[in-house]
Every structure is written in structure tokens, then in C-alpha cells.
What does this fold into?
Amino acid sequence: MAEIKRIATRQAYGETLAKLGAEYPGLVVMDADLSKSTKTDLFQKAFPERHINCGIAESNMMAAAAGIALTGKIVFASTFAMFAAGRAFEQVRTSIGYTHANVKIGATHAGLSVGEDGATHQCCEDIALMRTIPGMTVISPADAVEARAAVRAAAAYKGPVYLRFGRLPVPVVFNEGDYVFTIGKGYPLREGHDVTLAATGLMVEQALVAADLLAGEGIHARVLDIPTIKPIDDDLLAAAARETGAIVTAEEHNIIGGLGGAVCESVSASCPVPVLRVGVEDTFGRSGPALEVLRYYGLTAEHLVEKAKAAIALKTR
Amino acid sequence: MEEQRRAELAQKALQIRKYVIEEVYAAQSGHPGGSLSIADVVAYLYFHELHIDPSRPDWEDRDRFVLSKGHCVPAVYAALAMKGFFPVDWLRGFRHIDSPLQGHPNMLDVAGLDMSTGSLGQGISAACGMALSAKIFGKAYRTYAILGDGELEEGEVWEAAMFAAHYKLDNLVAFVDFNGLQIDGCVEDVMSPLPIAGKFREFGWHVLEIGAHDFDAIDAAYTLAKTVQDKPTIIVARSVKGKGVSFMEDMAAWHGTAPNKEQYEQAMKELGEAQAKLEAGY
It folds into this structure.
């Protein structure tokens, strides 16, 4: 088997921003003293006059981003997910959300895979927080290819978007050449009729591995990649619920309020079926190498296999 | 400032005060105290200073105005109506369910508003963004903001203060409505932001201290601000909360209370008499 290429989605974010700078003369990037970590330094090198370092002051950054955007510009405001969605929640909600400002929140270091920094920096609440803001689009790319496409789509879209990126290099699962991204669309990656594995972010790769493991046992799992958590692809989920009868969600986020919550809300209104959620089970993270932390909290293909079987057992038909 | 111009602005300010009382009375809700204390500077900005055009509220090169103390929007709604951004009879709908005039300003509902505010501290940050955008993209418009003195207790204001000085936003003028009172009492007793001028000076702003109800001083301050280079300007203006209505003046209780019928009539009578007196004097 060929060596799997690993790229962090934050890297794809920074590289794409640097390209977009030339395509959008009215594009401004803001950061809060984390330019090297969020990778907005790549934009800074190319377009220093349009890169604004706000210092360690995320609240001001978000409201100032709204101010710039409301003069007719596109702003990408970046910091770690914890500080973008958490610390500056109300600035995002009121100054960006309420005004429907054209601000893209490029949040990096989301989820447990921050690793050694531990719970203070492992944001597993951001999808839930951002999803509750009216008019906010929430995107969580699975790999570098999807991340690049999502950043481009966000720049072309008029209105606030929350983009969730990771620190950890993750396998590239999509082909750059044939990958097409549309905001609000989910993508079937594997066909199957026994159960659906709906995953987002770095859990998409685990869902594919889980599907292989299940196939070895004669269980055919459908795998869905759900990059846009809001607005979620209701039609795709309804079809999956109808055709497979059970769903397991997978995310690097609290099982409350994230993808799992969004899928439950969606299918409960269209085609109620058992939904089991794999994610962080309403607890805080802890320090450790990223892959060990993910394993510690059960964010593995093996755990997905276990949940898939449990979900199938819950089917009534 | 010419005497005639000063008298005109004083009339505008009295009219704004009357509308403030009408709005809050009709809503039986709202913030009369702070709206009355900023009436003079709002009159000055809308009828003398701001380059805006009611027929083109989205004009790209217009001056920007952000009411960071969003709860005092009755004064701004009054000015916008008087400028012709929307019909004056909308004012009676303030805070009503079917009205675009929300309790705190919503820029998507009302032409002429440049920002939605109400959560204290955020407006000044947004104003910084507007001013910085002009710097980056070579625009000549200026950005104006009004803050409350109690609002200075919000940490975000000081993040914005650093930001504006760091990026040398000399196209930004902030005005602090220093009436000394907030909901729970005197700002000095609740959580003192004093000395206001000294703090901003140390943060790298050009600081001017004036009386908030003196049009000559307001005019001199905004005129001087245009000559300041490489620094944002802040005008710390000592004001009287509830200014213009005898029983509301200097009373924290009138921060967020609506007048009853008797109080409404008394307030309108006082303001009407002030208008008549001004008219006669002029």
C-alpha cells in the first residue's frame, strides 16, 4: 500500500488564503497572535498590508472583523477554536451574526487532537455554539482537499461562516482532481444498506476504516462525509435513515450539540431511526499525544464498529 | 461656531429630546437618561459633522457612525427620522412588535444605521474595524463612535483602545458620554473607570475634555480631531444624565425607566418651553 499523505487542515487553510489574496483584492485576514499556528502567516508574507494582527484580544478582533466586513470587504478572522467560538462567542453572535457580516471565522486547533496542550485548548464545544447562531454556516472539513475547497466556497459565499480546522496532520482521503464542494451538501463515500456512519472532520477517515472492518464481518455500512454541519444535508440524511435504518455519528466534539445532535434533529423530523453518537462523551479532554488522546476518548474505528452493531441491534424492522 | 448655527443645533437637540421622550413614553420602555445626555452631540454629528446622504444610506464613502452605547438609540432614531432616513411616525413604534425600531439598533432593519449594537464594548471594536478598513483601502471617510462611561468597565473597550492606537487610527473619533451614572448608581461607586482621560492618554489616544452640552466646545473638539495625526481621538465629555428634563437630571433611576402620563406631559412641557425660549432669543 502506498504511503498515506498527511496534511493538517490548518495548513490547507493558510495556503488557500495566500492564494485567495490575489483573487480577492478586498480580502482581509485577521489573527490574534497565533499567525504561525493558524498558518495565516502564509497570507501575511504575501499580503502584509491586508494581514492584521490583533494581539491576544479575540473579542476585539471579532467585532473589528465585523466592522471591516461591513465596509464591503471579506474578512477571515483566525485564532484557536476555543477562543474564536468560546471566548469571543458573543462578539461572533452579535457583531457578526446579527449583522450577517461577511466574516469567515477560521478556527484552528479544534477538538481533542490539539493533544499535549490539554483541556484548556481542546475545544469540543464550538460546533454546538456556532450552530445556535441564526444565519451562521458551520463547516468542518475532513482533510486538506476538502479544507481547500471549503475555504474557497466560504470566500465566495456572502455571510458569516465558521470553518473548523485541526492541528494534527490527517490523511488525505479525497482526490483533488475530482472533488467538488458545495456548502450544505454531504457526500456518500461508501454504499451500504445495513447502517450509516455519518462522520465529520478527522473522523471521516475512521468511518472509512470502520466500514472496511464491518465489511469483513459481512455488515455493509454506508459512509457519509458531512462537512457542512449547518445547514445540514437533510435529504441525504433522510435517505440514509430510510435506506439503512440506523445511524452512527462520528465527530471530534462533544456528543451534545455537534454533528450527533444535528443528525438527531434532522432525522427525527424526516425519518426517525436509532442514532448512536460517537464523540467526546460530555467530558473535558486531557494532555497527551494527539493519537493517544483520540484513542483514550474512543474516537476510533473500533469504537465505531461497536456502535454500528449496537445501532443495528436497535433497528425495529 | 456662528451664533445662528449654534441656535439651529440647539433646536435640533431639543427636538431630539422631545422625540426621545415620545419614543420611550409610547413604548413604556427604554433608556431616557442616557439618550437625553447625548442629544447635543447626536444633533451636532447628524446636522453638522457627518458626511451622509439619506437618499444613499449605503453610499460607500459615507462617514460611519457607531452608537457603542446602543441602549441610547432613541436619540439616534430621532436624528435619523429628522434627517429623512425614515418617516417620523415610525418613532412611536419604538420597541413595539411590528416596528423596525428595535430596543437596541439593528442595522439590517433601519437604513442609516452602520452597526447593530447594544452589548456594551462591541461597538467601539466595530468602529475600529471600519476606520482600519479606510486606512487599508485608502478611503477618506471618517468613523465616529459614542461610548458610555459605564461602558468603559467592559474589558473589550481597552482591547479596542490598544488596537486603535497601535494602528494609528487618526480617522476615528470616539466620544465618551461622561454622565457619571450607570444603572446601579454612580460609576465611581459601582466600578470606577476614572480617570478616563488619563487612561486613554496612556493608551496612546489624543484626548480632549469638554462639556457635553456646549456646542462651541463640541465643534472645537471635532474640528481639532481632524488635525490630529497618527492617533485616534477621544472626546471625554462631562454630561448631565437626563439633560433637559428637570426631574430626570442626574438621577440614575432614569437610566431605564419610562415616564408615566403626568411625567411625560411635564417633560414635553419643559422641552417645549425651552424651544420657545430659544426661538424668542434667536
User: Anything to note?
Assistant: Chain B has a mean pLDDT of 97.
